[in-house]
Design goal:
This protein is mostly helical. It has a domain of about 45 residues. Helix content is about 55%, strand content about 0%. The longest helix has 24 residues. It is globular. The termini are far apart.
Length: about 90
């Protein structure tokens, strides 16, 4: 039996979800501290590819920021789970 294919509607929903997340992220960045240095900005996990090397301190900072956003109710549980899954996909196991 062949593998099931993703429906076009599901692909559209996924793209819309990513676009909405990107818009929210940009809006948050506009509100963020203007004195923050750009090198301290945390990379967005959806922009990174699986297997891409990320320094451990950066990854830990991304996880901490994600938990902080969820605890302060800036993001929903669903968004938290999606972003957490994206971060776990970036982990490289030796």
């Amino acid at each position: 039996m062949g593998a099931s294919r993703t429906s076009f509607e599901k692909l559209q929903r996924d793209r819309a979800k990513k676009a909405k997340a990107a818009a929210k992220r940009e809006k948050r960045l506009e509100k963020s501290d203007p004195n923050a240095r750009p090198d301290e900005a945390v990379a967005d996990p959806s922009e990174l590819t699986p297997g891409q090397e990320i320094p451990p301190d950066t990854l830990l900072r991304m996880v901490a920021e994600l938990h902080e956003q969820f605890e302060s109710e800036k993001i929903t549980f669903e968004e938290f789970e999606d972003r957490k899954t994206e971060l776990f996909a970036l982990l490289s196991v030796d």
